[in-house]
Amino acid sequence: MDKLIIEGGEPLRGTVPISGAKNAALPLLMATIVAPGEHRLANLPELADVESMLSLLGRIGCPSLIGPIVRIDTSRVAWCEAPYDLVRKMRASVLALGPLLARCGEAHVSLPGGCAIGVRPIDQHLKGLEALGCTFRMENGYVHGKVDQLRGAEMRLDMPTVTGTENILMAAVLADGHTVIDNAAAEPEVEELGAFLNALGAKVEGAGTPTIRIQGVTSLAPPTRPWSILPDRIETGTYLVAAAITGGDITCENARAGDLVAVLNILEQAGCTVERGEDSIRVARTGPILPVDITTAPHPGFPTDMQAQLMALLSLAGGDSRIRETIFENRFMHVAELLRLGARIDINLNLATVHGVRGLQGATVMATDLRASASLVLAGLAAQGRTEILRIYHLDRGYEKLAEKLSAVGARVRRGEEGRPG
Ligand code: EPZ
Q: Which of 257, 327, 371, 416 is the most buried (most CB within 10 A)?
């Protein structure tokens, strides 16, 4: 397994090109299933999760051709199954449920199971799809769904689940009649999915707001022009924190400040200067890092996917910061590793109190999940000396060309092989 070796202490300066959003690419790849034909997607990030999703499409009979424009042919769907060996690697494969039910009237999807950050149930996905007329049974670790005719319905989700909203949306576009999803997730990636579905001929209003209205249609087709995936707001936020934590100055190009309002506000409160451009964001820090209190929330609140990264920054603040994680039940896996780098953090249930320290020292640490790994990279960039991060396959799931992008702004970082010296 690979590791990342970082010699910390360098202020990072320069520009970072932002890639397409992982959490938009994954639902959009599944959405191609509801519109038979050849799809063309641009700005698809080269990530392990995207590769997994493309192999899932291949498994169901939809081949793809990789390149600057990725072509996916969904003319035929031969199998309606998302098998365990794929789903266990990437729980977002559950996004096959809605599209397969809409396309084939049946779906057999391995239950995703939990992951490091939580149990990750899918009860809301099933509740919404049942409201559209689907029936489900669980057997041998799979959820087996079927439906004769999807029918529009009005529903209210118990919580604004992102992939739950996306699964229901991808089925409702082909339902007979009108659907309203209330308490829907309002993330920019949901808005992007709604816009993509409309490019296929769907009639979706309000995607990206808490109430989505869909008028079902009888068929959909690939858009005439290639669709370009929106930039990844979490990748953007991660590099902006890299500027903040190293006392540097980074401009993220192809970045949308409107998708990161809560994060940019926190960075300003923490003592950074923030410049919001048309399609770029610049963050610099010269003064001290100031303590800040954060509570994660559904969009447009502070994103849980940026919690670990801000915790790394605030571990160097001049005072105590309180970080409350309200979305996932176990999203403090990075704390134990940050402590190894010299941070001082106390946890009480879903509240982490970060006692800022003057500096961090390099050490060998273990990545546990995608955003926790990003937090360790950021801490390593600021720490004095060498940090080695093991199991960086977690990072490869969500950050395209991480080492190259960091090196281009002055970081001393390279990949190595676990078990081999430096
Ligand atoms: C999406 O996961 C993202 N993944 C996650 O990003 C992100 O952290 C999360 O949304 C929250 O923003 C993708 O978009 C592929 P949820 P998702 O359903 O949809 C509970 C990353 O780092 N819940 O919005 O799985 C659930 O347990 C990843 O890129 C139910 O109880 O998250 C959680 O507590 C990590 N029942 C909360 O809702 C359900 O049926 C929010 O989960 C569904 C969810």
A: 371
> For the segment 300-344, what is each residue's pLDDT rounded down to a tens digit?
999 999 999 999 999 999 999 999 999 998 899 999 999 999 999
The active-site residue out of 115, 134, 252, 272 is: 115
Structure-token pair, residue 61: 């009979």
Tell whether 261 and 112 lie within a shared domain.
no
Average confidence (pLDDT) over 250-277: 98
With both helix axes pointing from N to C terminus, report the angle between 233-246 and 261-269 in degrees, rounded to the nearest 10. 10
Is 266 part of a structural domain of the chain? yes
The amino acid at 412: R
pLDDT per residue as tens digits for the range 85-135: 888 888 899 999 999 999 999 999 998 766 767 777 899 999 999 999 999
Same-domain status, 261 and 276:
yes
Considering its fold, how many domains does the chain have in total?
Answer: 2
Q: Ligand 1 in contact with 285 (CB < 6 A)?
A: no
The pTM of this model reads 0.97
192 pLDDT tier (thresholds 50, 70, 90): very high
Q: Are residues 178 and 292 in the same domain?
A: no
The atom number, within ligand 1, closest to the CA of 327 reads: 34
Q: Could you give the CA distance from residue 6 to residue 14 in angstroms, rounded to a whole number?
A: 18
Q: How far apart are CA 11 and CA 34, in angstroms?
A: 47
User: In this structure, are 221 and 350 located in the same domain?
Assistant: no
Q: Does the active-site annotation cover 115?
A: yes
How does the average pLDDT of the chain come out, rounded? Answer: 96
**Residues ≥6 apart with Cβ < 8 Å to 243:** 12, 13, 249, 250, 272, 283, 284, 285
- Give me 402's structure tokens: 């991480």
Q: Measure the CA–CA gap between 35 and 37, rounded to whole angstroms.
A: 6
Calculate what percentage of the chain has a pLDDT beyond 70: 99
Tell me, using a 6 A CB cutoff, whether residue 110 lines ligand 1.
no
Element (H, E) at 103: helix 97-104
